[in-house]
Amino acid sequence: MLFAPQPAPRAGLHYRLSGTYGAPWLVFVHALATDMRLWDPVIERIGGRFRVLTWDLRGHGLSDTPAGPWSITDLADDLLALTDYLRIERFALCGISVGGQVALDVALQAPERLDAVVFSNTGLKIGNAEGWAERIATATTHGMTAVADGNIERWFTDSFRADPARLTPWRTMVTRSPVEGFTNTAAALRDADYTGRAASIRVPSLVIGAEHDTSTPPDLARTVAATVPDARLEIMDGVAHLPNVQDPDAYAVLLNTFIPEVARRTRPA
Ligand SMILES: O=C(O)CC1=CCC(=O)O1
Fold this sequence. Notes:
This protein is α/β, with parallel strands linked by helices.
């Protein structure tokens, strides 16, 4: 277990390094009400090719939960502070859902740090104010168990949900997630909108969407891909909001194909 302490008001961040020492860096950002373990199935498949940094967003996993409110830009600043702390100068970045919005923010703030970026199952704007208000109220009043079933329904298709051996750990991850981390991050999502800014991103980009994703439907992925200049788009079949968990083989192929190809072109000589 590794922990990067940060002076208040920044959050101390729990992180893990894996993969191959000396290989190009690949940094992952997880989704709301999950933690860095969300990426384990993919890392098992591609870790050998990269040096991998995974970390828990503030208010998630073993990272600190500072007093809210916070914004998506605060989460992006956390990541930039963490990569500075670890002396990681350049990296490929892959973020899913809220992690995808963190990746949008990092791509806007610090394009010179990025070899390539993957915006997975995300949107320039995710959900609406009413929907987020309802989920924040439910979690505040009744706790994370009350939001877990809704999350799981949006995250996975029926066949995955029918198998307790596959489903149970991910549901437990939600119910153990800190309520204040969930509510403050949900409020950050409610207030975030990258519609006007994403067109100025200048980093080689892959957008991943999924056929059955009801949280960030394929049309949101298509909009991200149509807005970010020269972005490549992949819509995965047969999966919902978390394709990296439900079909890590196919997801790993997408990363393994895209990142090394563009990184060769973008990395300074
Ligand atoms: O929980 C959901 O509906 C999906 C989600 C939206 C943002 C995020 O990170 O997860």
